[in-house]
Write a structure and sequence with these properties.
Number of helices: 1
Distance between the termini: 55 Å
Helix content: under 10%
Mean pLDDT: 89
Structural class: mainly beta
């Protein structure tokens, strides 16, 4: 029962961060940096009817800081001392919750910030409370109730009989994040839950997602190393969850990887993912019209000869779907670009995907692992990992904004403060399947990132912005 969280059995993480990119260059990465002031990276055609909204960014907030020590992978006995794996969610008032992993304590922690960027809790709250078992790569949803409710899903590296450690855990707070109930295991299998497999020897952890519907129903999805994609729902605010439903993968099928969920009005649930063990993987899509009780047959979106990875989906107030993903025309581990496509008919048809991360420049060799969110006016925000060298680790986050519902996008830019070479690379040592972006109805934006500089410091950052401010 030995594994590396990034690359496979018998390969410790300490070696992975030094040499793995020779065999797995795109998704794991170490690098030179482009300065934040570099601004626009490429030209993307904008609408003749209106200019794209300009984002007004606030100064980055340091959420947490730790050492940057990574010893050999020895399962839950590994000597790891660093902070990593941030995620963010926001309520309608602009309060932003941030959750992350503290590897030195092997737990998930939570803090919440008001719209002015002030922390609301005297100390971060320990959510997972399992100091003997690593907890990684959380996802979060926040309900705008009084008091607000906070829901967290994460991957716990429990070895439960299989060759790979991993179970999917959930916890909720009914008092605004001041305290959390006991974590609940939603997966309960020995199959290595939370693994997003690319091949038998290469995978990312964090292959899971959580979404909150307008009616308060919670939806969770995750994949396992053995290949199945599972889905579960809670109609009582996270008190109980349904028996997991297998959506795809398993048996003789290719392994599912990187699920993303969106929940719309009327119990509509949208699910996208990609495949492992397939150099020409395409994005898959499935739809539920009954609140996740059942799903229609999965189908391929945007068929091509390239390799598509890291999809994300969101839905706006008018029911327009937005899907983003990364595609490499030359196949896995090559140069990726971020693409966006929209559907105005609930996913029955999609417009032709368009590239929004820009062509290669002297600053960015590859762009991958996007996130997407939308505000109440239909403004669409996309954030992605920037790779100055596709054979290295990501450094800095790119973004683009659409002011016309995703028909056109601004030229790509850099989220301020995310690409400072003094801070090292982007972290994400357990895998790049993350959700680093949240946008609320009023147009407030929250972006999180981790930075890692070996033997110096690791940090969690929150950057607030607004596409509606002028």
């Amino acid at each position: 029962m030995t594994e590396s969280p990034l690359v496979g059995p018998k390969t410790p993480l300490g070696l992975a961060t030094r040499r793995i990119l020779r065999v797995f260059p795109v998704v794991l990465a170490a690098v030179a940096v482009a300065p934040a002031a570099a601004g626009q990276e490429a030209s993307v055609k904008t609408s003749p009817r209106e200019s794209p909204p300009a984002v007004v960014w606030d100064r980055p907030i340091e959420v947490a800081r730790g050492e940057a020590v990574v010893g050999p992978w020895r399962m839950n006995a590994s000597i790891w001392r660093y902070v990593d794996d941030p995620t963010v969610a926001m309520d309608r008032e602009g309060f932003a919750g941030v959750a992350w992993a503290d590897q030195s304590r092997k737990d998930i922690f939570f803090q919440i910030y008001d719209p002015a960027g002030k922390a609301q809790l005297p100390e971060p709250v320990n959510v997972s409370r399992s100091p003997d078992v690593f907890s990684w790569l959380p996802r979060m949803a926040i309900a705008s109730t009084t008091p607000r409710r906070v829901y967290l899903l994460w991957q716990e590296i429990v070895f439960s009989g299989g060759t790979h450690g991993g179970e999917i855990f959930f916890a909720r707070s009914t008092d605004g994040g001041r305290s959390f109930g006991d974590p609940v295991n939603l997966s309960n299998t020995p199959a290595g839950d939370g693994k997003g497999r690319l091949s038998r020897d290469h995978w990312h952890n964090g292959s899971l997602d959580l979404a909150l519907g307008p009616d308060g129903t919670l939806y969770a999805a995750w994949t396992e190393y053995e290949g199945a994609l599972w889905f579960s729902r809670s109609a009582d605010g996270g008190a109980t969850f349904s028996t997991p439903l297998r959506i795809a993968g398993g048996r003789e099928a290719a392994p599912a990887r990187g699920p993303s969920l969106a929940a719309g009005a009327g119990g509509r649930v949208y699910l996208v993912w990609t495949l492992g063990d397939d150099p020409e993987a395409d994005i898959r899509f499935a739809f539920s019209a009954d609140g996740g009780r059942s799903f229609g047959d999965a189908r391929v979106l945007f068929e091509s000869d390239g390799h598509a990875d890291g999809p994300k989906v969101t839905v706006d107030a008018q029911g327009v779907l937005h899907v983003v993903y990364a595609e490499s025309p030359a196949g896995p581990f090559q140069r990726y670009r971020v693409r966006h496509a929209r559907s105005a008919d609930g996913g029955r048809t999609f417009e032709v995907p368009k590239e929004i991360s820009g062509p290669r420049t002297g600053e960015v060799d590859s762009a991958s692992f996007p996130a997407v969110s939308v505000d109440g006016q239909g403004r669409v925000v996309v954030v992605w990992e920037r790779f100055p060298d596709r054979r290295g680790r990501p450094q800095g986050l790119g973004f683009a904004v659409s002011g016309d519902g995703g028909r056109t996008f601004s030229p790509p830019s850099v989220v301020p403060g995310t690409d400072d070479p003094r801070l090292g690379f982007n972290g994400s040592l357990q895998g790049l399947l993350m959700r680093k972006l949240a946008v609320n109805e009023a147009g407030a934006i929250a972006v999180v990132n981790s930075t890692f500089k070996r033997d110096a410091a690791s940090r969690i950052w929150l950057v607030r912005g607004n596409a509606a401010r002028r």
